[in-house]
Design a protein that fits this description.
The protein has 9 helices and 9 strands. The protein is of the alpha/beta class. A 4-stranded mixed β-sheet has the order 2-1-4-7, with no helix packed on it. It has a 3-stranded mixed β-sheet with strand order 3-9-8. Strands 5-6 form a two-stranded antiparallel ribbon. Strand 1 and strand 2 form a beta hairpin.
């Protein structure tokens, strides 16, 4: 009870002091004593603002040029050329607008700083200015948007007929990929088939799935279109492959897709960067949970002949999990053993 009285007393004292301050301010306004004389600090502050903005712009351009190679990853896909071009067009427009508006800002702040002999001019509107700053940004933004839409439509549109089809599956907290086997057709899936062994929910009632394989890392061929069919098990993840300038959300219950063509093998990129440890990576850039940091998946870009050799060395998922045959319909077991390479 005593503590409550102390808190209440403190609140009342603060309220009284605030009220006295407001009364004093209003009295000074009535007596015309609220105006403070203009001192030299007004000019000093205007000068400091100008120096701050100019210094900030100088540091911005210095950092952007000095560390360009550190924040710009090398490009390794065909459509990435268009993506990068669009990015730098957008960057150029926004930086130009940023610099011009801030130069005008500090110029006006310095020139029209408060002075007793200077009075602001008021005008309610200026039709010409409003038309200019509406039409010009509208044209620039429309150009950027439609350019981006063209690139987006391309990579999300139908992939070439000979494209390699790979399924990408995101879950907390990792990635898996699934490839079609010798039949060249990726099998279906069903979330109701997910269990402790078949965590991708591969639907083995679909004959095309019987020879599908799930490798420990993703391989793609150089110079050939690759279509990624994307799913998520639990929450929204994001398939982000920065060197390919590719990104697409993985959404539970809503399969997504895009396609790309890699232009540099892993070995070529290692030589270019002089880094024998380099690997392309698929990462998740959604905050998908406490172990989000673990969602990194190695992608290896091979020469076409090396890619085909790697595929030939892979074994079907069913062959690696032969006990799962017991869950297949009896009429499919013999075909499953044949297609997956399981011996009697």
């Amino acid at each position: 009870m005593f503590d409550s009285l102390i808190i209440l007393s403190g609140i009342l004292i603060i309220a009284i002091l605030f009220t006295l301050f407001r009364v004093g301010t209003l009295v000074n306004v009535v007596r015309n004593r609220d105006k403070k004389p203009v001192t030299g600090s007004n000019k000093v502050n205007a000068t400091l603002l100008a120096l701050f903005v100019i210094g900030g712009l100088a540091l911005f351009f210095y950092y952007s040029s000095a560390y360009y190679d550190e924040y710009t990853l090398p490009l390794a896909s065909e459509h990435g050329i268009h993506t990068d071009r669009l990015f730098w067009w957008t960057m150029g427009v926004t930086v130009a607008a940023f610099v011009i508006t801030h130069i005008v800002l500090i110029a006006f702040a310095y020139k029209y700083r408060y002075a007793e002999t200077q009075k602001a001019t008021f005008f309610p509107d200026n039709t010409k200015l409003e038309v200019i700053w509406t039409i010009i940004p509208a044209i620039v933004l429309a150009t950027l948007i439609f350019s981006g839409l063209a690139t987006w439509t391309d990579i999300t549109g139908p992939a070439p007929d000979d494209a390699e089809v790979i399924e990408v599956y995101g879950f907390q907290f990792g990635w898996k990929s699934r490839y079609p086997g010798n039949d060249g057709e990726l099998g279906g899936f069903d979330f109701r088939k997910i269990d402790a062994v078949n965590d991708m929910g591969i639907d083995f009632s679909d004959e095309a799935a019987l020879d599908d394989f799930v490798p420990i890392e993703m391989h793609v061929p150089k110079g050939k279109a690759v279509e990624l069919k994307i799913r998520a098990k639990d929450v929204i993840h994001s398939v982000f492959i920065p060197h390919f300038r590719a990104q697409m959300n993985a959404v539970p219950g809503m399969p997504t897709r895009f396609w790309f063509t890699a232009t540099k093998t892993t070995e070529e990129m290692r030589a270019e960067l002089d880094n024998p440890e380099f690997n392309y990576e698929l990462v998740c850039n959604k905050i998908c949970g406490k172990a989000h940091f673990a969602m990194r998946y190695v992608i290896v870009v091979d020469e076409p002949e090396d890619y085909e050799k790697w595929k030939a060395e892979q074994t079907a998922w069913l062959k690696n999990n032969p006990d799962y045959l017991s869950k297949l319909p009896s009429e499919l077991k013999e075909l499953a053993m044949l297609k997956s390479g399981i011996s009697e």
